[in-house]
Amino acid sequence: MSAADVRLEESWKRVLGPEFSSPYMQQLREFLVAERANGKRIFPKGAEYFRALDLTPLGKVRVVILGQDPYHGAGQAHGLCFSVQPGVRIPPSLVNIYKELETDLGIRPVRHGFLESWARQGVLLLNSVLTVEEARAASHQGRGWERFTDAVIRAVNDECSSVVFMLWGSYAQKKAAFVDRERHLVLRAPHPSPLSAHNGFFGCRHFSKANEFLRSRGLEPIDWQLPTDPVLSQ
Protein backbone atom coordinates (compact mmCIF):
# COMPACT_ATOMS: atom_id res chain seq x y z
CA MET A 1 0.00 0.00 0.00
CA SER A 2 1.41 3.38 -1.02
CA ALA A 3 0.27 6.87 -0.17
CA ALA A 4 -1.01 7.20 -3.74
CA ASP A 5 -3.50 4.39 -3.06
CA VAL A 6 -4.97 6.07 0.00
CA ARG A 7 -7.65 8.73 0.08
CA LEU A 8 -6.05 11.22 2.46
CA GLU A 9 -5.74 14.99 2.80
CA GLU A 10 -2.62 16.14 0.93
CA SER A 11 -0.65 17.72 3.80
CA TRP A 12 -0.84 14.44 5.74
CA LYS A 13 -0.06 12.39 2.66
CA ARG A 14 3.13 14.40 2.25
CA VAL A 15 4.51 13.64 5.72
CA LEU A 16 3.05 10.14 6.13
CA GLY A 17 3.97 8.80 2.70
CA PRO A 18 6.84 6.64 4.03
CA GLU A 19 4.48 4.99 6.52
CA PHE A 20 2.17 3.75 3.78
CA SER A 21 5.04 2.10 1.95
CA SER A 22 6.31 0.37 5.10
CA PRO A 23 5.86 -3.40 5.54
CA TYR A 24 3.79 -2.95 8.69
CA MET A 25 1.14 -0.97 6.80
CA GLN A 26 1.00 -3.61 4.08
CA GLN A 27 0.47 -6.25 6.76
CA LEU A 28 -2.24 -4.11 8.36
CA ARG A 29 -4.02 -3.74 5.04
CA GLU A 30 -3.85 -7.49 4.44
CA PHE A 31 -5.26 -8.12 7.92
CA LEU A 32 -8.22 -5.79 7.32
CA VAL A 33 -8.96 -7.32 3.90
CA ALA A 34 -8.86 -10.83 5.40
CA GLU A 35 -11.13 -9.85 8.29
CA ARG A 36 -13.74 -8.50 5.90
CA ALA A 37 -13.43 -11.57 3.69
CA ASN A 38 -14.23 -13.65 6.76
CA GLY A 39 -17.44 -11.71 7.29
CA LYS A 40 -16.23 -9.50 10.14
CA ARG A 41 -17.86 -6.08 10.50
CA ILE A 42 -15.19 -3.40 10.86
CA PHE A 43 -15.81 0.09 12.23
CA PRO A 44 -15.65 2.80 11.11
CA LYS A 45 -16.30 2.31 7.40
CA GLY A 46 -13.24 2.37 5.17
CA ALA A 47 -13.79 5.90 3.87
CA GLU A 48 -13.63 7.18 7.46
CA TYR A 49 -10.44 5.50 8.72
CA PHE A 50 -8.56 8.78 8.24
CA ARG A 51 -11.47 11.15 8.84
CA ALA A 52 -9.66 12.95 11.68
CA LEU A 53 -6.78 13.76 9.36
CA ASP A 54 -9.01 14.75 6.46
CA LEU A 55 -10.97 17.25 8.57
CA THR A 56 -7.89 18.72 10.27
CA PRO A 57 -5.00 19.34 7.84
CA LEU A 58 -1.52 19.33 9.36
CA GLY A 59 -1.01 23.07 9.03
CA LYS A 60 -4.29 23.81 10.81
CA VAL A 61 -3.78 21.67 13.93
CA ARG A 62 -4.21 23.78 17.07
CA VAL A 63 -5.29 21.14 19.59
CA VAL A 64 -4.72 17.38 19.77
CA ILE A 65 -7.04 15.12 21.77
CA LEU A 66 -5.99 11.47 21.90
CA GLY A 67 -8.32 8.53 22.25
CA GLN A 68 -7.56 4.83 22.19
CA ASP A 69 -9.96 2.73 20.07
CA PRO A 70 -13.01 3.50 17.94
CA TYR A 71 -16.39 2.72 19.46
CA HIS A 72 -17.31 -0.87 18.59
CA GLY A 73 -21.11 -0.56 18.46
CA ALA A 74 -22.97 -0.36 15.15
CA GLY A 75 -23.42 3.19 13.90
CA GLN A 76 -21.20 4.84 16.49
CA ALA A 77 -17.66 5.34 15.12
CA HIS A 78 -16.96 7.71 12.25
CA GLY A 79 -13.23 8.35 12.55
CA LEU A 80 -13.01 10.94 15.35
CA CYS A 81 -12.13 10.01 18.92
CA PHE A 82 -14.92 10.48 21.49
CA SER A 83 -17.36 11.47 18.70
CA VAL A 84 -20.40 9.53 17.54
CA GLN A 85 -22.73 9.84 14.59
CA PRO A 86 -25.79 12.10 14.86
CA GLY A 87 -28.70 10.28 16.44
CA VAL A 88 -26.48 7.93 18.47
CA ARG A 89 -26.66 8.01 22.25
CA ILE A 90 -23.87 10.14 23.76
CA PRO A 91 -21.24 7.82 25.31
CA PRO A 92 -20.45 8.21 29.04
CA SER A 93 -16.96 9.66 28.54
CA LEU A 94 -18.33 12.33 26.22
CA VAL A 95 -21.09 13.12 28.71
CA ASN A 96 -18.32 13.87 31.22
CA ILE A 97 -16.42 15.97 28.67
CA TYR A 98 -19.58 18.04 28.22
CA LYS A 99 -19.92 18.40 32.01
CA GLU A 100 -16.37 19.74 32.25
CA LEU A 101 -17.01 22.12 29.35
CA GLU A 102 -20.02 23.51 31.19
CA THR A 103 -18.11 23.94 34.45
CA ASP A 104 -15.07 25.42 32.70
CA LEU A 105 -16.62 27.68 30.07
CA GLY A 106 -20.33 27.75 30.87
CA ILE A 107 -21.13 25.86 27.66
CA ARG A 108 -24.43 24.02 27.95
CA PRO A 109 -24.30 20.43 26.68
CA VAL A 110 -25.88 19.72 23.30
CA ARG A 111 -28.05 16.67 22.76
CA HIS A 112 -25.73 14.92 20.31
CA GLY A 113 -22.16 13.61 20.31
CA PHE A 114 -21.06 14.72 16.84
CA LEU A 115 -17.76 16.62 17.18
CA GLU A 116 -16.91 17.47 13.58
CA SER A 117 -17.19 21.20 14.19
CA TRP A 118 -14.24 20.93 16.59
CA ALA A 119 -12.22 19.01 14.01
CA ARG A 120 -12.91 21.62 11.33
CA GLN A 121 -11.48 24.30 13.64
CA GLY A 122 -8.18 22.50 14.13
CA VAL A 123 -8.87 20.00 16.92
CA LEU A 124 -7.24 16.74 15.85
CA LEU A 125 -9.47 14.04 17.36
CA LEU A 126 -7.10 11.12 16.95
CA ASN A 127 -7.55 7.56 18.12
CA SER A 128 -4.42 5.48 18.61
CA VAL A 129 -6.04 2.56 16.78
CA LEU A 130 -8.21 3.47 13.80
CA THR A 131 -10.34 0.34 13.34
CA VAL A 132 -12.15 -2.22 15.48
CA GLU A 133 -14.29 -5.32 14.99
CA GLU A 134 -17.95 -5.00 15.92
CA ALA A 135 -18.62 -5.82 19.58
CA ARG A 136 -14.95 -6.63 20.25
CA ALA A 137 -13.23 -3.77 22.05
CA ALA A 138 -9.48 -3.46 21.40
CA SER A 139 -9.64 -6.21 18.77
CA HIS A 140 -7.30 -4.38 16.37
CA GLN A 141 -4.68 -3.31 18.88
CA GLY A 142 -1.14 -4.39 18.07
CA ARG A 143 -1.79 -4.67 14.33
CA GLY A 144 0.17 -1.57 13.30
CA TRP A 145 -2.16 1.36 13.80
CA GLU A 146 -0.27 2.47 16.91
CA ARG A 147 2.92 2.90 14.90
CA PHE A 148 1.05 4.90 12.28
CA THR A 149 -0.57 7.24 14.80
CA ASP A 150 2.78 7.68 16.55
CA ALA A 151 3.99 9.06 13.21
CA VAL A 152 0.98 11.40 13.11
CA ILE A 153 1.78 12.79 16.56
CA ARG A 154 5.45 13.10 15.64
CA ALA A 155 4.52 15.09 12.53
CA VAL A 156 2.45 17.52 14.61
CA ASN A 157 5.26 17.84 17.15
CA ASP A 158 7.91 18.50 14.49
CA GLU A 159 6.03 20.49 11.85
CA CYS A 160 3.63 22.59 13.89
CA SER A 161 4.16 25.13 16.65
CA SER A 162 2.06 26.21 19.63
CA VAL A 163 -0.22 23.17 19.64
CA VAL A 164 -2.17 22.16 22.77
CA PHE A 165 -2.01 18.44 23.56
CA MET A 166 -4.86 17.30 25.82
CA LEU A 167 -3.69 13.97 27.23
CA TRP A 168 -6.44 12.26 29.20
CA GLY A 169 -5.44 9.06 30.96
CA SER A 170 -2.17 7.18 31.24
CA TYR A 171 -2.44 5.63 27.76
CA ALA A 172 -2.55 9.01 25.99
CA GLN A 173 0.13 10.43 28.29
CA LYS A 174 2.55 7.62 27.48
CA LYS A 175 1.83 7.76 23.76
CA ALA A 176 2.64 11.47 23.52
CA ALA A 177 5.42 11.53 26.10
CA PHE A 178 7.94 12.74 23.50
CA VAL A 179 6.09 15.97 22.67
CA ASP A 180 8.33 19.05 22.96
CA ARG A 181 6.96 21.06 25.87
CA GLU A 182 8.99 24.13 24.93
CA ARG A 183 7.14 24.45 21.62
CA HIS A 184 3.75 23.09 22.67
CA LEU A 185 1.44 23.08 25.68
CA VAL A 186 0.89 19.63 27.20
CA LEU A 187 -2.15 19.29 29.47
CA ARG A 188 -2.55 16.08 31.47
CA ALA A 189 -5.57 14.77 33.37
CA PRO A 190 -7.26 11.46 34.20
CA HIS A 191 -9.47 9.95 31.51
CA PRO A 192 -13.05 11.29 31.36
CA SER A 193 -14.49 7.79 31.73
CA PRO A 194 -16.95 7.36 34.63
CA LEU A 195 -14.31 5.18 36.32
CA SER A 196 -11.77 8.00 36.58
CA ALA A 197 -13.34 11.38 35.81
CA HIS A 198 -13.79 12.21 39.51
CA ASN A 199 -10.06 11.66 40.10
CA GLY A 200 -9.09 14.94 38.45
CA PHE A 201 -10.66 15.20 35.02
CA PHE A 202 -13.49 17.23 36.50
CA GLY A 203 -12.00 20.58 37.32
CA CYS A 204 -8.98 20.26 35.00
CA ARG A 205 -10.16 23.30 32.97
CA HIS A 206 -8.32 22.10 29.87
CA PHE A 207 -10.65 23.90 27.48
CA SER A 208 -10.11 27.36 28.93
CA LYS A 209 -6.39 26.68 29.40
CA ALA A 210 -6.12 25.70 25.75
CA ASN A 211 -7.78 28.89 24.59
CA GLU A 212 -5.68 31.04 26.91
CA PHE A 213 -2.53 29.48 25.46
CA LEU A 214 -3.68 29.93 21.87
CA ARG A 215 -4.53 33.58 22.48
CA SER A 216 -1.15 34.12 24.14
CA ARG A 217 0.49 32.90 20.92
CA GLY A 218 -1.63 35.15 18.73
CA LEU A 219 -3.81 32.28 17.51
CA GLU A 220 -7.58 32.00 17.25
CA PRO A 221 -9.13 30.15 20.20
CA ILE A 222 -11.41 27.17 19.65
CA ASP A 223 -15.15 27.74 19.77
CA TRP A 224 -16.03 24.74 21.92
CA GLN A 225 -19.76 25.40 21.59
CA LEU A 226 -21.11 22.68 19.30
CA PRO A 227 -24.02 23.47 16.96
CA THR A 228 -27.37 22.51 18.45
CA ASP A 229 -28.20 20.75 15.19
CA PRO A 230 -25.44 18.24 14.32
CA VAL A 231 -26.25 18.61 10.62
CA LEU A 232 -24.80 22.12 10.85
CA SER A 233 -21.44 20.58 11.81
CA GLN A 234 -21.09 18.81 8.48
UniProtKB/TrEMBL annotation:
GO CC annotations, alphabetized: cytoplasm
PROSITE patterns attached to this UniProt entry: U_DNA_GLYCOSYLASE (PS00130)
Active-site feature positions: 69 (proton acceptor)
SMART domains: UDG, UreE_C
Record's catalysed reaction(s): Hydrolyzes single-stranded DNA or mismatched double-stranded DNA and polynucleotides, releasing free uracil
Keyword entries, A-Z: Cytoplasm, DNA damage, DNA repair, Glycosidase, Hydrolase
Gene Ontology molecular function terms on file: uracil DNA N-glycosylase activity
Main location: cytoplasm
Pfam family membership, one: UDG
SUPFAM superfamilies hit by this protein: Uracil-DNA glycosylase-like
Location relative to the cell: Cytoplasm
KW Ion transport (keyword) present: no
Uracil-DNA glycosylase-like domain: residues covered: 54-214
Enzyme Commission identifier(s): 3.2.2.27
Any GO BP: base-excision repair, AP site formation via deaminated base removal
CDD domains: UDG-F1-like
Entries under HAMAP family matching the protein: UDG
Family from the record: Belongs to the uracil-DNA glycosylase (UDG) superfamily. UNG family.
NCBIfam families, per the entry: PRK05254.1-1, PRK05254.1-2, PRK05254.1-4, PRK05254.1-5, ung
Known function: Excises uracil residues from the DNA which can arise as a result of misincorporation of dUMP residues by DNA polymerase or due to deamination of cytosine.
Protein name per Swiss-Prot or TrEMBL: Uracil-DNA glycosylase
Gene: ung
